[in-house]
Design brief:
By secondary structure, this protein is α/β, with parallel strands linked by helices. It has twelve helices and 18 strands. Helix content is about 40%, strand content about 15%. The chain has an eight-stranded mixed sheet. It has a two-stranded antiparallel ribbon with strand order 2-3. The protein is globular. About 50% of the residues are buried.
Length: about 400
């Protein structure tokens, strides 16, 4: 592992290690009653803004359709793009939302909005969905919120460091680093003991205390055998998922859910197709199709899908018009979403766009509505209030209402 990669992994996981230590300080799990419809969330983040025309809302025969044909799926009456033939076989487990809309057409602002459910206000940062899930999950020997392939991920805001993301860029390299730490377990124990002595004998020991928290949780993580969960290379299912980076990350996502991680975000980049949209979406759909289908099949066969909400989405959709570079530009009027599992019915079409995809036909839903619906599945009411670090109260969603077709 090179120095840059090691630094990225350690930097990305430091908040996770600190979070583990804080989460073992006595927080109560909302899942204790074991009566909630869903206990896990999997978000497949299509970074850059995926085209609805080439994925889940094709417009065959229309000038805006880009020449993409639609194909039948495992759900009667639900057709999707010909570019996703394997996913089509799993659509009885998934529903397509075609009438979600957003006011945010800028990448950074839209990423924030679709991760938090709130528009960006610099003076009042909001927690990511993963942090909310982590907060609800409470005590866990494994990370509560794992972000795969997204750099630093989106943070916990007022929910505190303990609910920040544990980030993994490359599963194999992350595993090698943890194995290195395992081989130095005795040295970590010695450092922890020295830190304990220092913190007991010095009044100004905040830095030592934070270091001790990290070291203690590294120990706990080593003891859980977490590095084995990261071993996608020897997984017999690997051939079914594929052999590129996204396939490996998708397989890791399944393994993390199986191991007991409550929230996993899996990033699939490259969807900002301002140029050569057809060629690029061919490649992207080819990368997505096999792993996504394998994930849905495995979660279903194992029974995990009953307790796991699966969501595919990105910042926004793409314009009906093909631009001068044979690409599609940003189109927040429509935000394509696919969702299922965790008690959410599959095989449905929620809402419609008009015949050429230039507008939503009839009623629409907002991003806070999507968040309210997802939170509903984990037993968190949309109007639930959190206390900020300033002692004020704020709701889980920005006046979101339930998407009734998904409940």
């Amino acid at each position: 592992m090179n120095t840059k990669t090691r630094r990225q992994f350690i930097g990305g996981t430091a908040s996770g290690f600190l979070g583990f230590a804080a989460s073992h300080s006595g927080s109560r799990s909302v899942f204790a009653a074991e009566k909630l419809p869903a206990k896990k969330l999997l978000v497949i983040w299509a970074e850059g803004g995926p085209s609805q025309f080439e994925t889940f809302d094709p417009k065959p025969g229309q000038s805006t359709g880009g020449g993409v044909k639609s194909i039948s799926t495992a759900a009667r009456g639900l057709e999707i793009s010909e570019k996703l033939p394997l996913v089509a076989k799993q659509m009885d487990k998934l529903s397509v939302v075609r009438n979600l809309t957003s006011p945010e057409g800028d990448h950074a602002r839209a990423q924030y909005y679709l991760h938090t459910g709130y528009t960006f206000v610099e003076a009042f940062p909001r927690p990511a969905m993963g942090s909310v899930m982590s907060h609800q999950a409470g005590k866990n020997d494994l990370p509560n919120y794992v972000s795969i392939g997204a750099g630093q991920g989106f943070g916990p805001a007022f929910l505190g460091l303990e609910n920040g993301p544990f980030t993994i860029e490359n599963p194999a390299e992350a595993r090698r680093l943890l194995q290195t730490l395992e081989s130095r377990h005795e040295r970590i124990q010695l450092t922890r003991n020295l830190s304990e002595q220092f913190s007991r004998t010095h009044q100004a020991a905040a830095d030592a205390g934070a270091r001790l928290s990290v070291l203690s949780q590294i120990e706990r993580l080593i003891e859980t055998g977490f590095s084995k969960t990261l071993d996608v290379e020897s997984d017999p299912a690997r051939k079914r998922y594929g052999d590129d980076d996204f396939a490996n990350r998708a397989l890791l996502a399944k393994r993390l859910l199986q191991a007991g991680v409550p929230f996993v975000e899996l990033t699939h980049g490259g969807w900002d197709t301002h140029t050569q949209n057809d060629r690029n979406t061919n490649r992207l759909c080819s990368q997505l199709d096999r792993p996504f289908a394998a994930l849905m099949e495995d979660l279903s066969v194992s029974g995990l899908l009953d307790e796991t909400v699966v969501v595919w989405l990105g910042e926004f959709g793409r314009t009906p018009q093909i631009n001068g570079n044979a690409g599609r530009d940003h189109f927040p009027t429509v935000v394509p979403v696919v969702i299922g599992g965790g008690g959410i019915p599959g095989g449905q079409i929620v809402g419609t766009t008009n015949k050429d995809g230039t507008a939503i036909s009839g009623d629409s839903y907002s991003v806070p509505d999507l968040f309210a619906t997802i939170f509903n599945r984990i037993g968190l009411p949309a109007g639930h209030e959190f206390e900020t670090q300033f002692g004020s109260m704020t709701t889980a969603t920005d006046s979101g209402k339930l998407i009734t077709e998904l409940i």
